[in-house]
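[Meeting: bench + compute handoff]

Bench side (C.D.) handed over the final construct sequence. Compute side (W.E.) agreed to return the predicted structure before the next meeting so the bench team could plan truncations. Sequence as handed over:
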Amino acid sequence: MVCLLVSITLLHLVSLAMLFTATLEKSWWVWTESEITDLWHNCFFMNTTQTWVCATTTESDWLQSVQALMTLSVVFSSVSFLVFLGQLFILSRGKLFYFTGLCQAFAGFTDFAACLIFTFHKKEILSNSRDLSKGRFGYCVILAWLAIPLLLVSSVLYVHLRKKQ
């Protein structure tokens, strides 16, 4: 039981770290090695100062929905982890972690929706006069896509996990 709890906790923390990184880092779309776009900023690398200079992105409805869904995903996963820790001490013997699993499933579904919207509406989101074929998805989009199965698997594990002691 201890091994199972530790592995579920590690799975949850890994997926939460992936969500935080995907939401906050600067690499959702890479134009060149010195120009990237994320959910919040367009950034350019200045060779003279060796720093990134960022300006806020052009707001669009699709971008705001991706921002909101990714933020909700982080919130749901964080709440799920805190509820899980609370349920470890409060839940009586033999009970299931339904609420924790439900929060984690919501985190997975909101992350999935955000990834789908960004993937299929990147032209409207990036709203740049540039050719999108000259850019590519950054590692944050890949992290967000990889977090989806981890979130959904952990939600199923939480639903089936029964408090023993």
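W.E. noted at the follow-up: The chain is about 60% helix and 15% strand. C.D. will use this when planning the next construct.
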